[in-house]
Each structure stands twice: as structure tokens, then as C-alpha cells.
Amino acid sequence: QEITHSYRRSEVLSPEIWALRDRGGSTITPQLRQLYSGEDLGFGYSGAGKRVIIPEHEYRGVVVAGVQPGKGSVILDDVEGGFPQRWLWLPARDSQMPRERPPEPAVRKWQMPDGLTDRAERQVMQAMNVCARARDEIDAASVRNNERSDDDDSEDLSAHAMYTQLKVAAGLALLDERDSVGEDDWDLAATVMKKSDSVRDMVTARLTQKAHKDNVARGTAEGIRREVADTTEHDRAIKRIARLVLKKMPARPEWISASKLRPRIAARDRDDLPEVLDYLVENSHIEAEKKTYQGQSGTHYRRAAR
User: What is the value of pTM for the model shown?
Assistant: First the structure.
């Protein structure tokens, strides 16, 4: 059976297949980009058993992917490669979904338009005619893109918008069993593209919001980590100074004031002396008592009884 006349239904793209996109040297996104344009598909393996090449325009392919907005980066992260520009973005939820299940629709019988079928020479490819207005708008968009500065990335996500709109218009015409794209098809396709842009913008905004939340969460976690580290380091310093203060205190039962203790410890540790003395009192290493000497009241300290 010749490839020209064979139509195969592909398997659903599983998460494992999409995971291949993130591998170094991945080939799935280039192949999908080539499928979008009807280019050759396949790989030039050396072994004949593995080498399967599908010639350009000798196949028809559609890829449908369900993507949660928060996971849309699997497509949107490849703007430079032109991957997200080749997708038609549509919502999965129906804003007009009825509460009651409607009757099942009648089965619609569809036939290929006669103008696209050459019954005598089935291998001859038939081209669809496209209305003049659609051709003019596509040409004008190509001119604008050509004149755009290399530094202007404002339209990167719309690089293939006209091509996709033409595909949608052609699909609408084929659904109506017509072999040419008319102005009505082109206008309806433009409406579909507006919806696609809004859905894509929603996914982009969701990813931006998610990235911001992730950054905040990472910053908060880092702040907590630093705070814990700083607290631990401070506790170690207090315990170190406390050991030194105990060594500098006179033997029991002699009392000593903080002002006399202060010169006995290193200058770098003196600012922490009040906290160190509180720590020693709380842990019953020393005793504290308010005393008045020569009209001046203050706290005096001595070693605790053992």
C-alpha cells in the first residue's frame, strides 16, 4: 500500500513522549514543526529496518494535546524554535454547557469535495483555491515581518498566525465539502485565531504568575534558612562567651557587677554581655541580685551554689 493513499491514526501523545522534549538533542519538536508544514518526516538511520521516511506532502497529520495552563511551558518555552507559534490554542471548557444533557447529534456523512479528487489519477495532488483577500493579507503580513527589526520580538508568538489561520479556513471549507477557501471561511478563521490568542495569553499569564509564586516561595525558604543559620550561629556565640564569663567571675560567694566584668572579656564580645548574663542566670549557672552601692543601684552577679 502506497503512503500516498494510507491514513494512519497515531497513538495519543503520552506524558512520557512529551518528556522527550526536555532531553538534550530531542527530535520530537523539530519533527512536529516539520509535520505542521508538510515537510519530510523520519530519520536517516543506517539500518534499512529503522529507516522510514515519509515524503513531504504525502501525508496528513493532526496533533491534539491537552495542556493544563500551569504546564504550558512544555510548548511555550520554545519560542525561538517556533514551536508554540504552530499551535492553535483553544479552551477545553464550554462556557455555554447546558445543565441537562442534550440529544445526541445525528451522524454527519462527509465526502471529499469532488474538486479535490482525481478519480482517474488518484496520486495527483489537488490544490485548494484561496480567495484573493486572504492571499493579500498573507502577503502583507509577510512584508511586515520582513521589514521588522531583528531586535523587535513583539510579534514572535504570532510568526505563523497567518499560516495557521489559512489552515483553519481550509478546514472550515472542507467541513462544508467545498474545495476552495472563501472570504467567509477566512473571516471565521480570523475569529478562531482571536480566541486562540486569548487562550495562549491566558496560559502565558498563568505561567508568569506561577513563576512569580515559585520565586517568592524560594525566597521565603532561603530567608528562613538564613534566619535559622543566623540564629544557630548566634546561639553558639552566646554559649562561647558564657563559658569565658564564668572563667572571669570570682569564686563564690563574692559578687561582681556587669561593669567590672565587661573589661575582663574581649572587646568583640562585650556588646553581647547583657544577653550572656541573662542566659547564665536562666540556666542556673550564676545568681543575680539588685544591690545599691554609694547611692547607685544595679545588678550584681555571683557563681551559683553547686
Answer: 0.59
